Fold this protein.
Amino acid sequence: MLGARSHLLMPVFTHLLGGLANLFAGWLHGTLDVPRERLEAHCVELVLAATTSTSGK
């Protein structure tokens, strides 16, 4: 599915997933003071931006 560039994309998605996990962990532990809806919207924006910029379109 990712094609010839998959070796370049896997680190991007690995770091994105790690970053999202840290955001949610911070939010769950109370160190990130944002409403749940804003956190979810921000995470969706990050994923969409990553998939759009790596899709080659």
Q: What stands out?
A: Residues 6-29 form the longest helix (24 residues). The mean pLDDT is 85. Helices lie at 6-29, 36-54. The two ends are 15 Å apart (CA to CA).
